[in-house]
Amino acid sequence: MTTLNHKALRIALLTFAGLCFAAGCGGDGLNRAKVTGKVTVDGAPVEIGYITFEALPGTDCPQIGTEVRDGNYTFPKAKGPVPGQYKVTILGQRATGKKIKLPPGATPSGKTETDEYVSVIPKKYDRLRGGTEKLEATIAKGANEINFELDTKEVKIPKKFVLE
């Protein structure tokens, strides 16, 4: 598991959110759709994270993203995706209950430690860590509920099949 402190996670999420917002969202005359859903790993809700929808060829919409909190996410209609096909990226963290030391001067308040967070997204879904499992979504007109039930189980395929 990858370990991040809470401040680093917030910076990463805010940067990611800023890029998505800068890419375009809402008030642009596009026929957007409301999308809500849940993100779980092995049945447990993702505590804190971020989800993005990136349009696949043939769908004319800028990349959009929103926070995942306690396993839930929402794109209101005004800021949602347009109907079409999307590649989905999910970042997710959970607190370990441990504290980690901060380098001197790391925070303006002089804090010397912070909560430790670890990634909960299985590597197979995490393109940043070399994952190859694709997450995609199809958005329809109107309201959509799209849940992502991720699992840590690996499917083992024999390297060689013998036919008799």
Uncertain runs are 19-26
Task: Give the helix tally.
Answer: 1
**Biggest sheet, in brief?**
6 strands, antiparallel
How much of the sequence lies in strands comes to: 35-45%
Share in helix: 10-25%
The end-to-end span amounts to: 43 Å
Q: How confident is the prediction overall: mean pLDDT?
A: 83
Q: Topology as H/E string?
A: EHEEEEEEEEEE
What is the approximate shape?
globular
Describe the protein in words:
By secondary structure, the chain is mainly beta. The chain is built from one helix and eleven strands; from the N terminus they run βαββββββββββ. The protein has one helix spanning 6-23, and strands at residues 3-5, 34-41, 44-45, 48-55, 64-69, 72-75, 84-101, 113-119, 136-139, 143-145, 148-150. Strands 1, 4, 5, 7, 8 and 9 form a six-stranded antiparallel β-sheet that branches. Strands 2, 3, 6, 10 and 11 form a five-stranded mixed β-sheet that branches. The radius of gyration is 18 Å and the shape is globular. The termini are far apart. Residues 19-26 have low confidence and may be disordered.
Summarize the structure.
With 164 residues, the protein is mainly beta.
What are the key terms here?
164 residues, mainly beta, 6-stranded antiparallel sheet, 5-stranded mixed sheet, 11 strands, 11% helix
Write the layout of secondary structure elements.
Layout: E1 3-5, H1 6-23, E2 34-41, E3 44-45, E4 48-55, E5 64-69, E6 72-75, E7 84-101, E8 113-119, E9 136-139, E10 143-145, E11 148-150
Parallel strand pairs: 2-10, 2-11
Antiparallel strand pairs: 1-8, 2-3, 2-6, 4-5, 4-7, 7-8, 7-9
